[in-house]
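Design job #97: recover the sequence.
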């Protein structure tokens, strides 16, 4: 379910635009670089990752309010860039790098003012229509460790998937659900996927996979580094 550009709080709009832009750039990277990898396995691996990133872009992009005009969307995009550069500036400890971030922040402020003028000129709408509480930033982003958070999320959601607009455990799905039909059509045999072939080859050569871990994997069936698991999150019997 998408957000409302007019009534959603500024932080919600920021989060939606940030995650969508981040996934868009990631997708573009893998799509553009895939053809340049020197090996066939590498090209297939990058193509597989690009397909997954395309799913991410679609999912997060669907949260954006599609009723917005191009100028409204542009304004929120520029506001997001201002917020990100200001967050980098506020969190940076090196004074020289802080100056770089601040200069970029001021440049984006200029872009934001320019687009606000276009919105007023061509649509007769002030920027306050999208930010009725004012333009002050919500709490800025902070760069800090997130290992514990990621471990917690993985442990709780490894067997979750999307069912239309909801998240649901695959344990509750029927064989006729889209998730299983899609996997049966596209994946067929998980062991033949490029991502798993890379792991298999690495284990054969070095005796274990290429993970770096601070602790054991929070998911018991993924703790072995000498055997790849191609079923977890895909089949009911191996999703715990």
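Job complete. Output follows.
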């Amino acid at each position: 379910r998408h957000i409302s550009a007019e009534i959603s709080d500024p932080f919600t709009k920021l989060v939606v635009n940030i995650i969508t832009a981040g996934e868009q750039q990631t997708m573009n990277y893998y799509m553009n670089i895939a053809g340049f990898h020197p090996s066939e396995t590498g090209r297939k691996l990058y193509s597989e990752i690009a397909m997954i990133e395309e799913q991410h872009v679609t999912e997060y992009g669907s949260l954006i309010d599609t009723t917005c005009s191009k100028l409204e969307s542009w304004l929120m995009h520029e506001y997001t860039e201002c917020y990100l550069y200001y967050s980098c500036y506020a969190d940076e400890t090196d004074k020289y790098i802080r100056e770089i971030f601040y200069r970029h922040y001021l440049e984006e402020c200029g872009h934001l003012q320019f687009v606000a003028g276009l919105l007023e000129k061509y649509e007769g709408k002030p920027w306050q229509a999208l930010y009725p509480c004012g333009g002050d930033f919500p709490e800025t982003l902070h760069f800090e460790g997130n290992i514990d958070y990621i471990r917690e999320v993985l442990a709780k959601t490894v067997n979750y998937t999307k069912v239309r607009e909801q998240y649901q455990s695959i344990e509750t799905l029927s064989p006729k659900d889209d998730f299983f039909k899609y996997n049966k059509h596209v994946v067929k045999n998980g062991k033949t996927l490029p991502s798993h072939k890379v792991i298999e080859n690495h284990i054969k050569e070095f005796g274990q996979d290429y993970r770096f871990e601070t602790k054991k994997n929070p998911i018991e069936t993924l703790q072995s580094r000498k055997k790849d698991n191609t079923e977890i999150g895909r089949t009911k019997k191996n999703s715990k």
